[in-house]
Write a structure and sequence with these properties.
The chain has 178 residues and is of the alpha+beta class. It has 2 domains: 47 residues; 111 residues, Rieske Iron-sulfur Protein, CATH 2.102.10. Helix content is 20%, strand content 38%. The chain is built from 1 helix and 12 strands; from the N terminus they run ββαββββββββββ. The strands form 4 sheets. The chain has a 4-stranded antiparallel sheet with strand order 7-8-9-10, with no helix packed on it. It has a 3-stranded antiparallel sheet with strand order 3-12-11, with no helix packed on it. A 3-stranded antiparallel sheet has the order 4-5-6, with no helix packed on it. The chain is rod-shaped, with a radius of gyration of 35 Å. The chain starts with 8 loop residues before the first strand and ends with a strand. Bound molecules: FE2/S2 (inorganic) cluster. The site of FE2/S2 (inorganic) cluster (FES) has 11 residues, from loops.
């Protein structure tokens, strides 16, 4: 009676011992099994490198911490600039977030740093207590209202929140609601 687990051999007409069919099949399965294990070992890190970043949620996409409220002097606008890193899939984007922050006793304004006329950078002139845009002499008040010049609307603002004494902003310019 043939033993299914034992390798079987045959002898050719020339007297050579040749492997029987079950042994060849066994070796083929062993070979392809080993190839499968090796392929999986090679593919796993590649797949995880390609796929996992796509599954990871973006980091730091919206709110940006600008600093502590206690560090902002009252009634004296401060130009704040902080680094921001946004990670989307494989993409990492490092940029700067800039804002003019005005801390009043009862309110905080966070302004986009671009003039609402043609987007120039404006600055605070302490002697005049006004923001001044050097491009076309646009002037804005402490609360961002147009005082004079060509700007068509008040300074744009960023949404902001104060959490545990820190100021967070979403650096997307929004028209100021007057
Ligand atoms: S860009 Fe500011 S006044 Fe024109």
């Amino acid at each position: 009676m043939p033993d299914g687990n034992r390798a079987q051999f045959a002898v050719s007409e020339a007297g050579e011992v040749i492997e029987s069919e079950p042994r060849r099949k066994f070796l083929a399965r062993l070979f392809w099994g080993a190839m499968g294990v090796v392929s999986a070992a090679i593919a796993a890190p590649v797949i995880s490198y390609l796929i996992i970043p796509l599954l990871r949620p973006g980091e730091s996409n919206d709110w940006v911490k600008m600093g502590n409220i206690a560090d902002l002097p009252l009634n004296l606008p401060q130009r704040l600039e902080v680094g921001r890193r946004v990670v989307e899939g494989w993409e990492t984007d490092d940029s700067q977030v800039t804002a003019w922050v005005v801390r009043l006793p009862d309110k905080i304004y966070v302004f986009d740093p671009h003039c609402t006329h043609l987007g120039c950078a404006y600055r605070w002139v302490e002697q005049e207590k006004q923001f001044f845009c050097p491009c076309h002499a646009g002037v804005f008040s402490l609360t961002g209202q147009v005082v004079s010049g060509p700007p068509p609307r008040p300074l744009d603002v960023y949404a902001h929140e104060v959490r545990e004494g820190a100021l967070y902003v979403v650096p997307t310019p929004t028209k100021q609601v007057v």
